[in-house]
Amino acid sequence: MTAPAEAYKHMFALEQWEKGNALSERIRHLVKLRVSQINGCAFCVDMHSHDMKAEGETDERLYSLVSWQETPFFTDQERAALRLAEEGTRLSTGHVSDEAWQEASKHFTEEELGALVVAIANINTWNRYGTILRTVPGSLRKAAK
């Protein structure tokens, strides 16, 4: 089973918007991979890991993303984005902390920050599709061959 084609069409349109906005691809990919790790979406973890590797991301950063807070491999801007992404994904308190929002606001323009919020929300939605529908990791790469 898959989600209705019309829904996917709109999700892909949002993906295209994301690729052309002010947020850097590196930050966007980091956020999408980290959120997918948190949500346990194997399909998205696989896809974003491969995408990042193909774009030149280092093994060191890919392997340590799950423990980004304890490693020296991420910039202050990346850390601010990852913190906002984690808090925006977990929402255990019902909201993102003022501290996370203020830190992100220091490192991103208003336009970039808006795009970051969209990226966080969008990957959370994709993760729901992937986990509910049990999408098989690597299936997209196999289909493309």
Would you summarize the structure shown here?
This protein is mainly alpha-helical.
Summarize the structure in words.
With 145 residues, this protein is mainly alpha-helical. The protein has helices at residues 5-19, 25-39, 42-54, 59-64, 76-90, 98-107, 110-132, 139-144. The chain is built from 8 helices and no strands. The protein is globular. Helix content is 71%, strand content 0%. It has one domain: AhpD-like, CATH 1.20.1290.10.
CATH class: Mainly Alpha
Structural class: mainly alpha
**Which bin fits the share of residues in helices?**
over 70%
Low-confidence stretches: none
Strand fraction: under 5%
Please name the CATH topology.
AhpD-like
Number of domains: 1
- Mean pLDDT across the residues is 93
Span from first to last CA? Answer: 22 Å
**Overall CATH architecture:** Up-down Bundle
Main beta sheet: none
Query: What's the number of extended β-strand segments?
Result: 0
* SSE pattern: HHHHHHHH
Topology at a glance:
Elements: H1 5-19, H2 25-39, H3 42-54, H4 59-64, H5 76-90, H6 98-107, H7 110-132, H8 139-144
Helix pairs in contact: 1-7, 2-3, 2-5, 2-7, 5-6, 5-7
Domain Carboxymuconolactone decarboxylase-like: 6-87
GO molecular function: peroxiredoxin activity
Protein name: Carboxymuconolactone decarboxylase-like domain-containing protein
